[in-house]
């Protein structure tokens, strides 16, 4: 979003600078100046800046001294998580099981010895989403406010944990889980550089532990490592293109099959995850072939040819998807196994995939110079795919109106 704001600011300055009225429009110049200052200020904000002053003072203190939600409230909401699949954690639990998230919370509340910082981070990230969802679903104003306060308490704890957590932490499975949940939070609160640091740490840890070259076996320990690796891969590739940086994980180093074979993941989700992995691989190629420093030195003709190859590959991915492009609303739950996930949620996830398709296509087309000239040299095809992305996004928002939980899932992912 920051990158888009910067581009919009530069675009308006270019257009207005060429306008005869540019010199006389002091109000416009003042507005542009304010926009520039906002961008510069936001560029230097960190998670620490978001923390209440009282929380900044505890950064060097023990995390055991931080307040947690009441035990009875936590037990009630964890029981619900165990028995059902709450919307905002649907995607997370494909990679980190519900039992694992619950165990981390248990370790905090029933610790015999000191619990670890990663466990504290994981448990507060989990509880924050659970209380947040309960607040959205509650019809009673008093209950809603109570859930909101508990969610905010967990958010404060989560931010404290992120600030205390070092990207140089020893390589371990628990640290990868904590890095990823911290990164998701960074994305959610528009702190992409925080998310990038944490995802990069997770990617480095995965490779240090050799998870990218594991031999799949029929055991839960290996499945868990493979799931975390692919979770890291999706975030790594996605942030790479948006931030204009090379991904940490190189495709040539991976020997794992492009699929997730976890026994506790329904077939429909496994098929969808395979599609996400393929799409993420293409997103990584888009950066390397079109936006990397070496790619930008290529001729317009060569970059155009690369873009056409990527567009063809992207179309093949969508042709193999569970539903044809534009048909997500027709999905019926009984046609594919998505476990206990509601049909509305599945339709929203598939429609969100269409948003991702059009967004990726826009990134690819943006790299091809327009033959028609114009401000910014954006081609009509690029503008069209951008419009389609906004249209698909609008459909997603309309589809989720009856369910604030599903809307939260869409906006998060």
From TrEMBL:
One of its GO terms (molecular function) is zinc ion binding. One of its GO terms (biological process) is DNA-templated transcription. This is Xylanolytic transcriptional activator regulatory domain-containing protein. Residues 195-263 form the Xylanolytic transcriptional activator regulatory domain. Keywords: Nucleus. SMART domains: Fungal_trans. It comes from the Eukaryota. The keyword Transport does not apply. InterPro entries: AtrR-like, XnlR_reg_dom. It comes from Gibberella nygamai.
């Amino acid at each position: 979003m920051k990158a888009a704001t910067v581009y919009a600011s530069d675009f308006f300055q270019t257009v207005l600078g060429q306008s005869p009225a540019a010199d006389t429009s002091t109000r416009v110049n003042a507005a542009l100046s304010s926009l520039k200052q906002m961008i510069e200020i936001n560029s230097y904000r960190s998670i620490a800046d978001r923390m209440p002053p009282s929380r900044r003072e505890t950064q060097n203190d023990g995390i055991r001294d931080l307040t947690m939600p009441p035990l009875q409230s936590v037990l009630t909401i964890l029981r619900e998580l165990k028995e059902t699949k709450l919307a905002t954690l649907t995607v997370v639990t494909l990679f980190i099981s519900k039992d694992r998230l619950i165990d981390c919370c248990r370790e905090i509340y029933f610790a015999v010895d000191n619990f670890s910082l990663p466990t504290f981070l994981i448990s507060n990230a989990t509880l924050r989403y659970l209380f947040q969802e309960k607040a959205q679903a509650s019809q009673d104003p008093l209950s809603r406010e109570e859930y909101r306060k508990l969610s905010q308490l967990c958010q404060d704890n989560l931010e404290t944990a992120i600030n205390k957590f070092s990207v140089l932490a020893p390589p371990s499975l628990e640290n990868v889980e904590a890095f990823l949940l911290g990164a998701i939070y960074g994305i959610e609160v528009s702190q992409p550089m925080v998310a990038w640091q944490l995802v990069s740490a997770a990617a480095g840890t995965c490779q240090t532990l050799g998870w990218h070259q594991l031999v799949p076996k029929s055991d839960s320990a290996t499945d868990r490592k493979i799931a975390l690796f692919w979770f890291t891969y999706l975030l790594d590739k996605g942030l790479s293109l948006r931030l204009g940086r090379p991904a940490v994980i190189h495709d040539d180093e991976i020997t794992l099959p492009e699929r997730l074979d976890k026994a506790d993941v329904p077939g429909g989700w496994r098929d969808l995850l395979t599609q996400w992995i393929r799409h993420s691989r293409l997103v990584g190629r888009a950066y390397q072939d079109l936006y990397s420093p070496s790619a930008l030195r290529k001729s317009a003709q060569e970059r155009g040819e690369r873009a056409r190859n990527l567009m063809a590959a992207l179309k093949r991915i969508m042709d193999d998807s569970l539903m044809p492009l534009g048909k997500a609303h027709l999905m019926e739950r009984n046609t594919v196994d998505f476990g206990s996930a509601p049909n509305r949620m599945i339709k929203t996830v598939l429609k969100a995939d269409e948003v991702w398709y059009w967004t990726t296509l826009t990134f690819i087309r943006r790299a091809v110079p327009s033959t028609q000239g114009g401000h910014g040299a954006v081609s009509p095809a690029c503008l069209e795919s951008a419009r389609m992305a906004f249209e698909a996004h609008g459909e997603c928002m309309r589809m989720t109106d009856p369910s604030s939980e599903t809307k939260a899932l869409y906006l998060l992912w």
